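FW: tagging you since you asked about this chain on Friday. Here's the raw sequence from the shared folder, copied in full. Didn't touch anything.
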Amino acid sequence: MDISNTAPIQPLNQKARIEPATLEDLPRLIDLTMDLFEMEEDFDPDRQKQERGLRAILEQPSRGRIFVVRTDYEIIGMVNVLFTISTVMGGFVINLEDVIIHPNFRRCGYGSQLMTYVIDFAKRKDFMRITLLTDKVSDESQKFFEGFGFSHSHMIPMRLNLGE
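HL: got it, structure written out here
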């Protein structure tokens, strides 16, 4: 079922759970990342690239996890939790990417539920830090992440794109 054109469903009627995504979830994950990248100034959505990237995470759990917010009917949100090592921290850290809740389900608490789950996961697994990038023009998303204890860094992102 495609929910992109449906009216918001009241959160009381939508009991949601957080769980790892599977390969069967790939089409919906692609849709969500396409929606996210269409909002981002730095990215050009490309279904094939999004599929390759998501599949690479799903097929190799040592790279990270994709957690989804799932109702009985549909995936309504997701986050990529990518694993790496930080020499500064002296151990494993997480890079958080693609945090998105479908627009019809925002401001219902699902994003907070997802972030709380990821932070608890990181603590249980002894990760030492979670880093994320958020759109610098979106005060709303910055305030959302600050509410979970994220703070601005003196580091600034720089990119060298080597692929298409």
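FW: The beta strands are 17-20, 64-70, 75-86, 91-101, 130-132.
HL: agreed, and The two ends are 32 Å apart (CA to CA).
FW: great, closing this out.
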